């Protein structure tokens, strides 16, 4: 889900590079909405891969990384536009990073359902006997 959620945004960035129609701006907005809609699965994957004990530390470290990149991305985009007069290189860079991220998500191992979670949970409502 995480890798597939990134593909519409990447396709829209490529469309902005090579297409001249303003429709690509709307496609980018939709692609970004899909990508951000699947972002919640990223945090679930961290919990599944590393457990509850490591989750807060990993999320904090990741927050430093994506917070820094959120700050530096517009600086990079402005610098590239000042040097080249175009955002094409920026969009190409961001789409390449998105493709790499989608590839990493696609290579994550599949999880088996733990045996304990397949058992039925007894009814614990008040007044109901098992």
* Mean pLDDT figure: 85
Distance between the termini: 38 Å
Task: Please report which band the strand proportion falls in: under 5%, 5-15%, 15-25%, 25-35%, 35-45% or over 45%.
Answer: under 5%
Count of strand segments? 0
Please state the overall shape, judged from the principal axes of the Cα atoms.
globular
Extract low-pLDDT stretches. Answer: none
Largest sheet: none
Q: What is the N-to-C order of secondary-structure elements (H for helix, E for strand)? A: HHHHH
Rg measurement, Å: 21 Å
The structure class reads: mainly alpha
- Helical content class: over 70%
The helix count comes to 5
Q: What's the short version?
A:
This protein is mostly helical and 130 residues long. The chain has five helices and no strands. The longest helix is centred in the middle third of the chain and has 46 residues, at 39-84.
Task: Give a topology summary.
Elements: H1 2-18, H2 23-37, H3 39-84, H4 88-106, H5 115-118
Helix pairs in contact: 1-2, 1-4
Describe this structure as you would to a colleague.
The protein is mostly helical. Helix content is 78%, strand content 0%. The chain contains five helices and no strands. Helix 1 runs antiparallel to helix 2 and helix 1 packs antiparallel against helix 4. It is globular and about 50 Å long. The two termini are 38 Å apart. The mean pLDDT is 85.
């Amino acid at each position: 889900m995480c890798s597939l959620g990134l593909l519409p945004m990447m396709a829209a960035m490529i469309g902005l590079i090579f297409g001249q129609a303003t429709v690509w701006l709307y496609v980018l907005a939709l692609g970004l909405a899909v990508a951000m809609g699947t972002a919640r699965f990223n945090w679930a994957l961290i919990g599944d891969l590393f457990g509850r004990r490591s989750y807060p530390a990993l999320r904090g470290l990741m927050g430093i990384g994506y917070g820094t990149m959120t700050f530096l991305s517009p600086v990079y985009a402005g610098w590239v536009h000042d040097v080249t007069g175009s955002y094409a290189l920026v969009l190409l860079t961001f789409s390449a990073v998105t493709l790499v991220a989608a590839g990493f998500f696609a290579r994550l191992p599949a999880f088996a359902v733990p045996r304990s979670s397949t058992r039925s949970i007894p009814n614990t409502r008040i007044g109901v006997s098992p």
